[in-house]
Sequence to fold (107 residues):
Amino acid sequence: AKAIDTSATVVSPVASVSRCERANDYGQKQPATTTEDWDKAKLYDRLGALCYQAHRHPEAISWWEKAAAIYRRSQNSRSQQHLAKVALDQAQAYLAIGQHEQARERA
Fold:
């Protein structure tokens, strides 16, 4: 039987931090050229996920808050689903840094 190589799926913490830093730089510049709110929200959500993976929880929370603000402005069901996901992501990040009250408010 042929062995499956899973090494490509493991991301080192150093690589995660580097990706988060590059994502932060990109996120600071990109919204100025992105006109659609939905695109901005998706970008902010992804930036939050990258920072969370790099254990940079305060940065992740900040990106997710930007995404949440956009989702709150839209009252369609799709935005509300994404808002719920972002709120749960924020709650997990708050738990990771020991801010249980803020986590409870998000969940």
The two ends are 45 Å apart (CA to CA).
